[in-house]
Design a protein that fits this description.
339 residues, seven-stranded mixed beta sheet, Rossmann fold, globular, alpha/beta, Quinone Oxidoreductase, Chain A, domain 1, 15 strands, 2 domains, single chain
């Protein structure tokens, strides 16, 4: 089978197309999946560029979508022919996250602690997959594993989103676009930010009710608060990290919820602790979600009109080119890998 492997010490020029032996048949409790598509996440980028240490020869990529082509003994959840998607945390089935140090949290994450989805065939425990949404293409399904589930957990699981709420989303990355779509599907109002007029127009076309160009309006948190008539937003999906948190706090209503899902800005800034306390905000630190959350998300997507926003598609052997395209920041929606 064809695969891509990352050579030490990492870097886009260290991604190597290889021919690996067919993995054979699945053992007890396992399934064999023919992978058809993957999608790029910032976590993948950090790993392949060497910012996150990886063992020599690791097969990268967390997100995967494909077909079950063989089932091991004892597997009752899947049958041959089922379309499936990978699970970010295969050992987090339900309930609270595993109580382990951060250094151990990724030990079974595909494309990080274990080989990932940049290959044609993958054998893994059945718990490493869930069904894909009916009617979704492989490319659409492959966007859900990390970005889709992160947005789902941020708003629905932790945020307890309801109709009439006001949600603030930042930028046009995968998590933010999913958050916008989920919020609109559930009857919420959305304030969206970007530094690009063209991207703001596209956010409006996706349903954003209010638009803020943070390059023109550096105090966009105060501006968002004003847009709500001095009420403040109920939820912020914070992708900037601590460096952007002061603006998110300024945008929030008293008793509001901020979901911390990214760390794109600097980490030297201090927490706006007094402002957070004054507004009695609830802060959730989000690291994707459990397998049960993914199953619930899939069921909801099947009953909704939500469709992932896709940008460009690259073949598997051009994975490095796909990451270089990601570096430009010009994409809108998810970048797809055709396996």
């Amino acid at each position: 089978m064809k695969a891509l492997q990352l050579r030490q010490p990492g870097g886009l020029d260290k991604l190597e197309v290889t021919d690996l032996r067919d993995p054979g048949l699945p053992g007890r409790g396992e399934v064999l999946v023919r992978l058809r598509a993957s999608s790029l996440n910032y976590h993948d980028y950090l790993l392949v560029t060497g910012s996150i240490p990886a063992r020599d020869g690791l097969i990268p990529m967390t997100d995967g979508a494909g077909d079950v082509i063989a089932v091991g003994d004892g597997v009752e959840e899947f049958r041959v022919g089922d379309r499936v998607i990978s699970v970010f945390f295969p050992d987090w089935g339900d309930g609270v996250p595993r109580n382990v140090p951060l250094s151990q949290a990724f030990e079974n994450v595909p494309g990080d602690g274990v080989d990932g989805c940049a290959r044609q065939l993958m054998i893994a425990p059945a718990t490493a997959f869930t069904r894909a949404p009916r009617g979704f293409s492989y490319a659409e399904s492959a966007t859900l594993v990390c970005s889709g589930l992160t947005a789902w957990r941020a708003l629905v699981v932790e945020g307890r989103l309801k109709a009439g709420d006001i949600v603030l989303v930042q930028g046009t990355g995968g998590v933010s676009l999913f958050a916008l779509q989920i919020a609109k599907a559930m009857g919420a109002t959305v304030v969206a930010t970007s530094s690009s007029t063209e991207k703001l127009d596209r956010l409006k076309a996706l349903g954003a009710d209010y638009l803020l160009n943070y390059r023109d309006e550096p105090n966009w948190g105060t501006a968002a608060y004003a847009l709500t008539g001095g009420r403040g937003v109920d939820h912020v999906v914070e992708i900037g990290g601590i460096g952007a948190l002061a603006q998110s706090v300024a945008a929030s209503r008293a008793g509001g919820h901020i979901a911390m899902v990214g760390q794109l800005s600097g980490q030297k800034e201090s927490l706006p602790a007094m402002e957070m306390m004054g507004k009695q905000l609830r802060i959730s630190w989000i690291m994707v979600g459990s397998r049960t959350m993914q199953i619930d998300m899939v069921h909801t997507l099947e009953a909704s009109d939500i469709r992932p926003v896709l940008d460009r598609t690259f073949p598997l052997h051009e994975l490095a080119h796909a990451f270089r395209y990601q570096e430009t920041g010009t994409h809108f929606g998810k970048i797809i890998i055709d396996i």
